[in-house]
Amino acid sequence: MNNLFKALNDPTRREILDLLREGDLNAGEIADRFNMTKPSISHHLDLLRQAGLVESVKQGQFITYSLNTTVLDELLAWLMSFQTTEKPASEKTPK
């Protein structure tokens, strides 16, 4: 889960995830949307892949990236497990 939080901590990586919500893109298409070097984008994509947030498929000379929402679903379920429907003791009225 540390890789997941590390990946989500960077605004560039969050922007890449937003782009992939619209559909699959290859690395060049993603890099064209940013004002940074292709190796830098490749590094961001690799961290997203290691965190399980994106999947990559090599198609000829290109690598196509797609969003993997399964990891986000698991994170959301974990976070929701901390929510309780019972009122905290400080909000309960004495009987």
Automatic annotation (TrEMBL):
Keywords for the protein's UniProt record, in alphabetical order: DNA-binding, Transcription, Transcription regulation
SUPFAM superfamilies, sorted: Winged helix' DNA-binding domain
GO molecular function annotations of the record: DNA binding; DNA-binding transcription factor activity
Pfam families from the UniProt entry: HTH_5 (PF01022)
CDD domains: HTH_ARSR
All copies of domain HTH arsR-type, residue ranges: 1-87
Entries under Gene3D superfamilies matching the protein: Winged helix-like DNA-binding domain superfamily/Winged helix DNA-binding domain
Protein name listed in UniProt: Winged helix-turn-helix transcriptional regulator
Organism: Spirosoma terrae
